[in-house]
Structure formats: structure tokens, C-alpha cells
Specification:
The chain is of the alpha/beta class and about 250 residues long. It has seven helices and seven strands. It is globular. The chain starts with 6 loop residues before the first strand and ends in a 7-residue tail after the last strand.
Amino acid sequence: MMLTDKVAVITGSSRGIGKAVAERFAKEGAKVVIHCRETTDKAKQVAQQIQNNGGTALVCQADVARRAHTERMRDEALAAFDQIDILVSNAGIIIDRPFIESTDADWDASMDTNLRGFFNVCQAVLPHMIERRSGRIIATGSIVNEIADFGGNKFSVCTASKGGIVNMMHPIAVEVAEYGITVNAVSPGYIATEMFDSIDTSGLDEALRLIPMRRYGKPEEIAAAMAFLASDEAAYITGQTLRVNGGMSMS
């Protein structure tokens, strides 16, 4: 198992991609912190399933947009497991709305959850990783950073927040490289999760025609990429974005 004796904090892991990542990491031997903002019942179900399969999981409810919450999540993880080896900054939202119809509330929600969330969790966990001179940080990026025309869906506000994550990742990776810490991103394409409920269905159908593999991705396929980046085998990879999108970004 690639992640034996590792401890992973995975934000936004009560459902969708985060849930698949938590399950894959636990399968690979990691102790996992299941995070949610509101869906505590779902987070507990994920943790219970992992425990039923012989793994170890802790549930933590927190709002990643609030610094005090991310610091408490870190403290709870350390109290339970004494260390944090891997941080997956996955908590995020999608807003499918034309730019001229986007509101201040849309902008604030996207920036707070996506970009400020990444900022907060990294600042909470990095001092611990620097002290231990070891760690893996993996962010969930997005194909919206690379493609402007999806044939129907409109992601301008989310593009700003997701683009900020990927751009901020690079100087962070440089700053912490000397401590044996890697910072990378996995950029999903259209992945079949509950988040599809936030996307216009006609746009989904049009986007499918833009994917060379002619199918939506599976959360487990994102989890596999993240498991690799979290492993010792990826120790010499940092500041990179691994694209998992069925070839869509080649368009």
C-alpha cells in the first residue's frame, strides 16, 4: 500500500471527488480526516464505511473560509494522529452563470470557499509539515482554467478562484521545496458527481461532445491521480498540474 502510516486531511470529503479520495487513501493505508462544512451525516457515513473496511477515519466539521476553523481542524487531526503528512485541498463550489448575470454573492462564495479555503488550509498545515521536513499538498484545480468555451456552461467566476489556486501553488511549491514538501494540483474535467446538480444539463450534453473519450470522468479516476501524487513515488514532482479530463484540454 502506497500510503501506509500516513495521515491525510481531505477537505470536502463527505461526497463526490473528496469522498473517492478519502476511500482510496484509506485503501492505500492512510489514516484520513473526513471534512465537511454542513453534511455531517454524509461525512460520518464515509468514515463508517472506511472503518468497516478496516481503515481509520476521523470526521471534522469546519468552514474552510474561516481561518479559526481550519486551525481547529488541524489541531483535531494532530490530537488524533500526532502528524499530518498529506493535505488535499478539495472543498469547492461550482457556479454556472453568465458573467453579466453573476452577483457579488456568487463572487464572494467562489472566492471564499475555493481560493480562501486553499489559502487557509495551507497556512494551517504548512508550519507542521515544515517542522517535520516532509509533506504533500494536493489541490483540486479545474479544467475551467484552460478552456473558455464549453458550448453552453458559463464558469467565469469559478475560473477566477480556481485559477488563483493553481497560480498560487507555484510560488508555494518553490518556498517549501527545501523542506521536502511537494505542492501539486489535479485538474479534473467533467466528473460525474453530485456537483452536476449545479450545472445546466444542456451545457453538460454539449460538453460531452468536446471530450475525445466521449464520457464523463469518475471520481475514482481523480482519486487515483491524487494517490500517486501523495505517494513517495512522486517525491520529485512539485508545482505541477496533472490533468485528468479525457483529453478535453487538447481541444
